[in-house]
Amino acid sequence: MILFLGLVLVKIGDFNFVSAEGTLSCSVTTDCSSGTVIFRMKNTTNSHAGTPTGSSYPNLVCCSGVTGLGNDCNAANKSVVLRLSGANNAHVRQNTLGDYAGANNACISAPAGDTISVAYRSGSCAGDEATFGSMSGATNAHVGTTYTTKICAKITAAVVYSVSVDPTSVNYGGMAMNTTRASAIITATVGDAATKLNIIGADATYTEGGKCGDGVCTWALSIALGQDQYVHAFTKSTGLTTGGTLGSNPSSEWVALTKTNQLLSASVTANGSQNFKLDMRTPSTAGTETNLGSQYSTDVTIVASAP
Question: Which domain holds residue 187?
Answer without folding.
Answer: 2-16+161-305
